[in-house]
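Fill-in record for SLC4A8 protein.
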Amino acid sequence: MVFGGIPEHGVLDCHVKIKHGPAKRGAHSPFVKQDRHRFFDTVRLPSLQKILVAMGAPLGRLVDAFYHACGRRFWAGKAVSPWTHSAKKGLLQGCPLSPVLTACVMHCWAARVPAGQLEVDTPTYCDDRLLWRTNPDKSCLVTAKLRSDQFDAARGFSCRPRKRAIAAASASLAVEAGVDGSSTLHILGAAYDMLNQSGVALPDLDIWRLRYLIRATSFVSRDWRMRKNLLKTLAVSVFSWAGGTASLSDLQLDLLLSEVKAALTRALPAATVPVDIFELVGWDVEPGFATSWAHLSAAVSYRAKRPRWHDDAPLDLALASWTVVLPRMRSFAVAELNVDFIAALTDLIFLRKAWSYLARRLVALFSKVIDKPLLRQELTRTSVGVSGHFHRSLTCSGLARRQLLTAAAFVLLPIVPRNVLVLWSCRSTRPRSVWMIEKSLLRLHDGLRRCVASGAESILLATDGSYHEGTAAWAIVLPLLDQKFSAGVSGEDQSAFRAETAALECALQAHDWQRFALRVGAFAWEDSSQTMGAQVWRFFVLGTTWLIAKSVSVFVVLLKTSPRQVWRRLARDAAEWELAVCRSAAATGAAVRPVLTR
């Protein structure tokens, strides 16, 4: 795969490809790194023109005319030729078109090396090339290396010995090949430790120089907006550009956070709370938040694209292969949190503003993915029970605001919840959280399946409720098995319609409708509230379309049936906290204004 000069094939995309390489090449397969010597100066223009014609480039002749119409002067030391020449090789470095032409040449190399179903991967970024095998057999890597050398010899490319290296956990292969060997792969500003597959570092990052740079921003301007722009441009981008691949340690993030606080609170009263500063300036300059957001953006981008090396993998493998860790986390996952963890968030309510900010950014990202069909990753269905929304990299269920807020909190807060449910899978296949009131209903699943499998009995649903009296209940009767299941409706909504949707949802879940489609037996719904008509509805054949349409309302109600009293109390506390923050910000502004207007 070719990177560089192609949209959505940049440096970060190349790192993602390299990062996910171990999932296919095995834990101990080595990297063969090749860096061409003076690559741009040795590209032959006649062969480049043939490549453009073969690829059907519409402006290929324009490129040829441009390079032949311009004369060149030769320069060596202090001597410059007095006349111009029509050069036959060499691309202009700094020209915006040169990376695209380089990608065309490297496309031929990436297609030639693995030809004939040779099990090797060949990512390349401009003149930086990598080889690794996807087969345990070492001969395929040797064959790929010979083909690469033949390609370079035919086109006049060369490689200095110091620019060739083998990165592997063992040094035996490098000794046999007679090249430099190391247990760390240094490429495109990142270092991959072969002994620790999950460790990726930024070796060129000077943390102390970055700290001094952050300090200097406080002396440039008193305008907070100017300070924020300087921090984002000169400091935050330095350690967040490799989001999703490389991370800073917690100690380094804490050091940068202390410097950012000092830079923003300079010339302010000593009693100024740093949280108020981030509320006014913006949380995107906070190092921990910026790093988490960079990793989250990289993960969403990776899920939204259609990577050729990952198209046929099941979704659980795609999630398990994302080994990049967020700060203070072991893996990236959008999670649904239980009530106990939500209650614990009140102790860290000062992060609510950053929490909401990240949630809004999540909504924007998810909406871009879901609204554009070309960005969806519809993976192969590997088992029964997949809903009609297909296995997407980003499921529509992630758009629920409660789930987005908790996902943002899970990214920001150094807390590991006790009950985490991954939401990357579809709603019909992922496990549901079981509340205490529902544990007595687990036997309903087996009873309904036996009843439907027999094909000789109906399933009867009876519901009733009163919103004014505050009570609602439902029952499911299986006459063939002489069984009855009944329960009250949890939550504040005690209407008859809520009881109907609760009964229908429980019956459909127990029945596993995506697998059986209710095509045997009758399905009767006794409508007590007359919302569906006076007659008894019977569905002898229920298709997937009707069930999905009905399940939409069920899912909306399910979001409201989680302990709403807790959420209302939290919302009230959050509103009170926000009012307190506004008052604190006003007090801080009153104290800061004389300092800034001097």
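KEY FINDING: Confidence is low (pLDDT under 50) at residues 306-351, 369-442, 512-562.
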